Amino acid sequence: MGSGPLADRVCIVTGSSRGIGKVLALRLAQDGADVVVCARSTEQGELPGTIGETAAAVEALGSRALAIRLDLTEDAEVDAVVDRTLGVFGRIDILVNNAVIVGPRRTLLGGDAAFLDLAYRVNVRGPYRLIERVSEVMAGQGGGTIVNITSGAAKHPQAPVVAATPADLDAMDPSYGITKAALDRVTTAYASELKAHIAIVSVSPGLVIT
């Protein structure tokens, strides 16, 4: 168990095998928290990092770690994260909804809704289910904090003055901004209901090169 301002606190960080999520997990550990490291990456693939590597780095900082594979599209895996965390640590103090799926742009004309459906399940519904489960735990223990990592892409862009160029259509899929806007709305929709015991906030970190 670590020492510091978050000693005795238990944190769940999704998407923490790499990037922003890994940095957040390590910073929480530096401040003394025990960290549940969640992501789909259990083995090395095209992208660097695994949940096991992040968990080892957390433990090297003197905190306890628990690595759990999490596919946010699977309700059973969402429930397993909460249940295993309680089984090992007995409490949940902080949830960081950081995991996200981002893909290359799909055109609206001639396209289909398949990727939007996937983005919704990973970026909105999965975090919602975690909030739902974790809020019950936090309310029962007297408090907690939920942080939703969002994005400036959630904001309305300026109205276009010219048609999209081929370069514009070779960028990030709009489903990212669409679903991040929805996650922002989840935050504000339930803030008053949870306020008696739980702080729920959205954090937009700005452009991060990972």
CATH class: Alpha Beta
Count the beta strands: 6
Query: Approximately how much helix is present in the residues?
Result: 40-55%
Q: Which architecture does the CATH hierarchy give at level 2?
A: 3-Layer(aba) Sandwich
The CATH superfamily appears as NAD(P)-binding Rossmann-like Domain
Number of domains: 1
Strand content: 15-25%
Defining traits:
Rossmann fold, six-stranded parallel sheet, 6 strands, single chain, alpha/beta, 210 residues, 5 helices
Overview in brief:
It is built from five helices and six strands; from the N terminus they run βαβαβαβαβαβ. By secondary structure, it is α/β, with parallel strands linked by helices. The protein has one domain: NAD(P)-binding Rossmann-like Domain (Rossmann fold, 3-Layer(aba) Sandwich).
What report would you give on this structure?
This protein has 210 residues and is α/β, with parallel strands linked by helices. The protein has a single domain, classed as Rossmann fold. It contains five helices and six strands, in the order βαβαβαβαβαβ. It has helices at residues 19-30, 51-60, 75-89, 114-141, 175-194, and strands spanning 10-14, 34-39, 65-69, 94-97, 144-149, 198-203. Strands 3-2-1-4-5-6 form a six-stranded parallel sheet, with helices on both faces. β2, α2 and β3 form a beta-alpha-beta unit. α3 packs parallel to α4 and α4 runs parallel beside α5. It starts with 9 loop residues before the first strand and ends in a 7-residue tail after the last strand.
